[in-house]
Amino acid sequence: MGENMEVLSPEETRQMLHELHVHQIEMEMQNEELRRAQGELEASRVRYFDLSKKSEGEEICIEARILAVADVVEAMASPRPYRPGLGIDAALNEIEKNRGTHYDRTGADACSRLFREKGFKLEGA
After folding, report:
1. d(CA 63, CA 93)
2. Reduced to 3 states, what is the DSSP secondary structure of residue 44?
3. What DSSP element (H or E) covers 10?
4. Cβ proximity of 114 and 96 under 8 Å
5. I want to staple 108 with a disulfide (CB 3.0 to 4.6 A). Which of 16, 43, 92, 103 is the partner?
6. H helix or E strand, kind and range, residue 94
7. Where are the domains of the chain?
8. DSSP tag of 104
9. Do residues 78 and 122 lie in contact, with contact meaning Cβ atoms separated by under 8 Å?
10. Cα–chain-centroid distance for residue 115?
11. Would you say the pTM of this structure is higher than 0.70?
12. Contact by Cβ (8 Å): 98, 76
């Protein structure tokens, strides 16, 4: 054996094997949690792509499409506990750039007009 290696007593060996077994169980639990999270992520991805195929909103009511645009603008423009607000211009640029692909055209255009032409201000942004 090497110079710095100790021979373990039977009790130390049992303790080490026990700790390794506990660690193995913890790893298996984490792997199971990761598999569950991966399944949820995959299900969300499928739902997202199913909805993205409806980008013109043919099966999504107009109220929901408008609310989705408003939610993005509010979320981007307003401060969050983990970051400052990005500002209304960044939010409007996002919906204008991706109108018709990520966001409903009519909702994005109406939101943009509301802020840029009508002077609407978002409280707290």
Report:
1. 22
2. helix
3. helix 10-52
4. no
5. 103
6. helix 88-97
7. 9-53, 62-116
8. -
9. yes
10. 27
11. no
12. no
Q: Please report, for residues 53, 67, 77, the alpha-carbon distance to residue 95 in angstroms, rounded to integers and kept in the order given.
A: 18, 13, 12
Written as six digits, the tokens of 88 are 């209304």
Whole-Å CA distances, 6 to 12, 13, 18: 11, 11, 19
Q: How far apart are CA 91 and CA 121, in angstroms?
A: 13
Q: Can you tell me the distance from the alpha carbon of 92 to that of 115, in angstroms, rounded to the nearest whole number?
A: 8
Length of the chain: 125
Type of residue numbered 19: E
Q: Name 83's bridge partners.
A: 80
Angle between helices 105-116 and 88-97 (to 10 degrees): 150
